[in-house]
From TrEMBL:
SUPFAM superfamilies: P-loop containing nucleoside triphosphate hydrolases (SSF52540), Transducin (alpha subunit), insertion domain (SSF47895). Coiled coil: none annotated. SMART domains: G_alpha (SM00275). GO terms for cellular component: cytoplasm; heterotrimeric G-protein complex. It comes from Lentinula raphanica. GO terms for molecular function: G protein-coupled receptor binding; G-protein beta/gamma-subunit complex binding; GTP binding; GTPase activity; metal ion binding. GTP binds at residues 319-324, 473-477, 542-545, 595. One of its GO terms (biological process) is adenylate cyclase-modulating G protein-coupled receptor signaling pathway. The keyword Metal-binding applies. This is G-protein alpha subunit-domain-containing protein.
Amino acid sequence: MSTSTSASESNSIFTSTGTFTSSSTVPGLGYLSGKVIKRFGSAVVNGVDAILIRRRLAQIEDSLGPTSDNIAHTTIVKSLYSDLLELSRPVYSLSIRTRAFRVIMSKVGGMDFEDLTQAMIDWPLSESYNLLKTMMTCLHPLAESSHSQAWTRTTNESDALKSERSARLDTFLAAGNDAYKSQLPYMLSETVPPRSFVISFLLFIAFSVAQSSKPSFSRIVMEAGLPSFIVNFYPSISIATLKQQRYWFPAQLTIHALLKCLDPNTDFFLISQLRTMLDDTFHLSSDTLTAIRLTISQKDLPIMKLLEKPNILLLGPGETGKTTLVKQIVKSCFKSSQQFYSDCERAEYISHILCNVSASVEQLLDIIAGLGQNLKTFENVLIDLLDVLDDLDLHAEKISSLYQYEEKFHLVSAYRHLDLPAHVNYYFLDALPRILKKHYLPSDQDIIQCHIMTTGIHPTLIDLRGSAVSLVDFGGQFSEHKKWINWFQKAGLIIFVASISDYNEVCAENPLMNRMDDAIELFDNLVHSKWFVGVSIILLLNKTDVFAHKFQEVDFTERFPDYTGGANHDAACVYIKNKYLSKAPADTQVYFTSAVDEKQILETMNDIYDEFLEPVIPYLAPAPSPEPNTSLQVHVQISTTSSHHELSSTSQ
Ligand SMILES: Nc1nc2c(ncn2[C@@H]2O[C@H](COP(=O)(O)OP(=O)(O)OP(=O)(O)O)[C@@H](O)[C@H]2O)c(=O)[nH]1
Ligand SMILES: [Mg+2]
């Protein structure tokens, strides 16, 4: 590093009219350098003074740079920031300014700007103006050579000198941009829209304006070009319908702070300019400064993970209700006045539903054979039923004969206790007379109740209160688990879906393994996985409706001898919940759900959105626009009836 600074290097590149304000009180080198900075400000800096300035800068970098520890003493902090700002002024050499500017921009990017803000407010307004203008140039998407060229002096410099100056300025701006970017609390990726890049800066401006609360400071923010800067990143902010979107929040917060601080008597023009950009309904429940502080503090929460990766992963064992949940959410985004499934889609479900039932009937036949009792009549009914289910069109006669003996259906129902899958046992068996009718077309509920085993990974983009979030559905069978890991790094939030009613069932792939034991073990593994540090994991104990039936029919204490809650259904639910929670952090959120109940599942999802997603929504990409000629606000990337799915042939 050069220890001397040439006259040409130390000349101002940007015009500056300010006076010097640094007043370091730090004894020793800091003190000396503070004085030097103060004394030499715009003068040509040479020799020992240049060395002292550089040493002071190194000290500032050590204390305030990204790797520094916090400095407790407020007087020291004040003097450090004061000198830092001083050294960013255009009167110093570009190499000094670049280093100082880098520290400033890293503080802004990392939302660690309370002290910097204070120092800037205490600075002369003309200096703050220069700095803010430089920051906006540095963050502007086109902050490249065109800018620096416009900023270079229009003296009679030779072209070569001009282009050298321009190149050095580009390096200066790029260094600030990089420092800012490197400290952002969220990662920039393709899924994060460009406006997210300036969230930290806008909060810095909002905070400075609110902290200063002086109209004069707000005025220089306006004059430095903030409105056009905002419009660059939020191009439609003046459009009434768009500015109400929640993702305008950081820009709206900044505009709101400015409007609060400008003087209505003298700043009429500026105020009316800002009014066109502010949503009329914009409202803060606390004062401006508190609201900004709250927004800044969110950077520490796991929700920032969601901001980086707006993916909600639905994990859990097979047949617990993951896909049903997706179906309900996707359907809910559709305007209720219209039909969600077309007749064609409904027709595609017929074969899946028939297969669901016939798989269970086959299972029932196996069970009966194993009972060793003479149940010939019943077996014949089931065989007839299987035939019919195999091809409805060919067996019209048989269907009518089945109808003639409606008690036969009751006979089937009488064997419910024989461990059939819940959706057949509690739903499709009752619906058989309707299903076997000519021209049967599945209802919405039939589609929700139909099980199609998921294979592979299926992300679906959903409209979450105006923002786009990806809901990722995975196959839950053992053989599918190895595919999950590809998505672990992309997890923003995890919803582990377990079935509360499977306590007396065995795994489809391993009849020796109890389903609930297997689910708890899987949950335990995921909760403690290194992939999910800082990611919230929500537990959904699903199939409460099935549990309610089962709890009446199957002795709970037989399975759990240490359960002491007797016939109290709620006590049994808490008992199972605690079994899961014994493996998880104490603050794990648990929801009891029935995914086949649309209203209930949407209420639960709303609670999850409020609790885990609301603060992130303003920063996410907008939801995909509705398809032409439809009010569908959801972009479903997979077809629920596609050939990606295989039929479940076994359930218990
Ligand atoms: N009664 C009832 N049935 C449910 C509930 N949740 C899911 N089901 C049914 O259970 C079956 C399995 O549900 P899916 O959503 O396909 O399960 P999954 O977790 O996606 O299963 P895999 O894709 O195999 O991992 C379907 O027939 C659903 O209708 C519930 O809360 N109550
Ligand atoms: Mg599924």
